[in-house]
Design a protein that fits this description.
With 195 residues, the protein is mainly beta. 4% of the residues lie in helices and 51% in strands. It has one domain: Beta Barrel (Lipocalin), CATH 2.40.128. An eight-stranded antiparallel barrel has the order 1-4-5-7-8-9-10-11. The protein is globular.
């Protein structure tokens, strides 16, 4: 029988089945940290980072939970080696001097029992600014190895110029080559850690 300390509830009082308080570590082999930016204003470039760590510390009141993540920028992958090299340069991420992105949540707000607004500090390119992410709870299940997993879909948007990444080139039309807005698309599979 569950007790008040081993279940997680939403502000409406709903118990989130299978979700228990504790530390959940993101399984990078079943998760993805992706982004999309407009290129030449007529197409999209999609990329991802393949080297990252993230921890979700779930509290009995889901709104007291926290998220921490670290992304290694050298792992950027847009399926184009030349473009990836440019992204790693001082024009964009400046990987040689600032190799990581850090994210730490500061608050979580319930939109309903399965959707949440996560506010936190994103440190990138030596600058820390507040961002807002939208997270949708996908449920929990037991995997074939006996672990308990949580699924989340997370989306957001940033303006790269706010982190002093202003490189661009003017097109013949007067538009810029690379959009300032970057969409974030993150699929999370996290595993409950033993106490």
């Amino acid at each position: 029988m569950s007790t008040a300390t081993d279940v997680v509830t939403t502000p409406s009082g709903r118990t989130l089945d299978g979700l228990v308080p504790g530390v959940w570590t993101v399984d990078t082999s079943h998760s993805e940290v992706g982004f999309t930016a407009r290129h030449l204003m007529v197409s999209k470039v999609r990329g991802r980072f393949t080297d990252y760590t993230a921890t979700i510390t779930v509290a009995p009141n889901v709104l007291d939970s926290t998220v921490q993540a670290t992304v290694q920028l050298a792992s950027v992958d847009t399926r184009d080696e030349k473009r990836d090299g440019h992204l790693k340069s001082a024009d964009f991420f400046d990987v040689e001097n600032i190799p990581q992105i850090l994210f730490e949540s500061t608050s979580i707000e319930a939109l309903d029992d399965e959707e949440f607004r996560i506010t936190g500090n994103l440190t990138m390119h030596g600058i820390t600014k507040e961002i807002v992410l939208h997270a949708e709870y996908q449920g929990t299940d037991i995997d074939p190895w006996g672990g308990t997993r949580i699924g989340l879909e997370v989306t957001g948007q940033i303006n790269r110029s706010e982190w002093d990444m202003k490189f661009n080139q003017m097109l013949g039309s007067g538009n810029m080559m690379v959009a300032d807005k970057v969409k974030l698309e993150i699929d999370v599979s996290a595993v409950k850690q033993e106490a």
